[in-house]
Design brief:
By secondary structure, the protein is of the alpha/beta class. Helix content is 29%, strand content 17%. Helix 13 links the parallel strand 12 and strand 13. Helix 7 packs across helix 9. The longest helix is centred in the N-terminal third of the chain and has 17 residues, at 138-154.
Length: 442
């Protein structure tokens, strides 16, 4: 797994879904078109059909927090963390099959779904078992945990229990005082590993604060958005990495937090510029590039948010860069025209609030930028409203951002546009040369 991208790459963004160069484990929208949806989201049928020759399969079984509804498409804006589980394992060595089913308990899954999954399990495989949200009796839950463990072992595979995902109330994550301790007790008594996802997630989400944590839950309490599913999967992987005895640990990819490839001057803050003519607030968020910026921000750094015309484009067609047209915080599940993907699209105000919240969390200084001749008046007015609402600095006109209206520089360093593409002497517009941003107007 690559750990960094150049700073120039940050400023631009993908122009169409699937063209992003971001490969790191940062959040990005990985929803897909119908032609690949069945293998990406639906339960593999038959179980074990995604197996790679000579390699084990990790069968994930659980409820809707692992996989919403039967096909897991996210058509209602809700996603389960099993969608992202594979992202933290080396797919060449271990294949994850998500066989969870929404609405099931440990008992109903055993009676209705388990036989089909068992038919695909082979010696050397793994079964990750995660129930509790729908269970009504801890005693019944414990009974079926024991059944799963015994039957998986009979097949020569390795059972692993997993805690529930955290519930949420008014943006505050809550721990499970019933099924978590019972599950851990069963794991200990049976000598199996326990993935304590909740132990990783609750303190992390608490530190994020109520607003950000609220964004992880589509229903406000249990079922996660795509963003929340990613975070739950990340905490799932962190819990595995923290347990040296967990047999799945050997298959994890590099868990090092990815950051931008950048040169800092010792003792001095860094200034990030996020935006540009080839991206939008939505594109920056869903492509994974914001995750790299977030990971790279240090206390005292400045982050210039300079978005513009692309935020006014269509949300469902073309390059799908547009957002909902308001500075207020709204969201809507939409179907993309060309790919037929389901995506939870947010408003301009939501994306900016998310960035501002992250910058504040990291101790950075956020600046909204209205560039003269570049920022459409509608976006400029949104920025003025958002700057006032969130009490952050707003810089109007190009001269206040440090962008000078000058001609082509005699500097011998190569020149790049905001997409990170090298351009020639005839290029007009905002460019980056030797790490500095300027406007070429003649």
């Amino acid at each position: 797994m690559r750990k960094s991208l150049t700073f120039a790459m940050l400023l631009g963004c993908m122009t169409a879904m699937g063209q992003s160069t971001v490969k790191e484990n940062v959040f990005k929208d990985i929803t897909t078109k119908p032609s690949v949806r069945n293998t990406r989201f639906a339960c593999p049928n038959p179980a074990g059909s995604l197996r790679k020759t000579g390699k084990p399969v990790a069968f994930y079984i659980g409820d809707s927090t692992m996989r919403t509804n039967s096909n897991g498409q996210g058509w209602n804006g809700q996603w389960g963390f099993g969608l992202f589980a594979q992202e933290w394992f080396d797919a060449n060595e271990l294949v994850v099959e998500n066989h969870a089913w929404g609405g099931t308990t440990s008992e109903t899954y055993y009676k209705e779904k388990w036989a089909a999954v068992k038919s695909g399990i082979k010696a050397g495989d793994f079964v990750v078992i995660d129930f509790g949200h729908n269970d009504k009796s801890a005693d019944v839950f414990e009974t079926y945990m024991n059944k799963y463990i015994d039957e998986v072992r009979t097949l020569g595979a390795t059972p692993i229990l997993c805690s529930r995902t955290p519930r949420c109330s008014n943006g505050k994550p809550s721990g499970d005082n019933t099924y978590r301790p019972r599950g851990k007790a069963v794991a200990q008594s049976k000598g199996v590993n326990y993935i304590d996802l909740e132990a990783q997630a609750v303190p992390m989400y608490t530190a994020f604060g109520t607003w950000k944590t609220t964004q992880f839950y589509q229903d406000g309490k249990l079922h996660t958005t795509l963003l929340g599913a990613w975070h739950n999967a990340y905490c799932h992987a962190l819990a595995i990495a923290a347990d040296e005895t967990n047999p799945l640990r050997q298959y994890l990819v590099d868990m090092t937090t990815p950051t931008l490839d950048m040169e800092r001057e010792a003792g001095k803050p860094y200034t990030f510029t996020v935006g540009g003519s080839d991206t939008s607030a939505r594109g920056t968020f869903r492509s994974g590039r914001w995750g790299l910026v977030y990971n790279s921000i240090e206390k005292g750094d400045s982050v210039m948010l300079a978005f513009g015309a692309n935020d006014l484009k269509t949300t469902v067609g073309g390059s799908e860069l547009g957002c909902l047209q308001t500075a207020e915080e709204t969201q809507e599940v939409q179907t993309m025209t060309n790919s037929q993907r389901y995506e939870l699209v947010y408003s301009y105000g939501w994306y900016i609030h998310y960035f501002l919240n992250d910058i504040k969390e990291k101790g950075g200084i956020a600046v909204l930028v209205n560039e003269e001749g570049t920022t459409p008046e509608k976006v400029a007015e949104w920025n003025r409203q958002l700057a006032k609402t969130h009490q952050v600095e707003l810089r109007e006109a190009s001269t206040s951002t440090g962008i000078k209206a000058v001609g082509q520089s005699a500097d011998s360093h190569p020149v790049y546009n905001l997409s990170g593409q090298k351009v020639g002497t005839g290029y007009k517009g905002v460019v980056i040369q030797n790490g500095k941003k300027r406007l070429v107007s003649r």
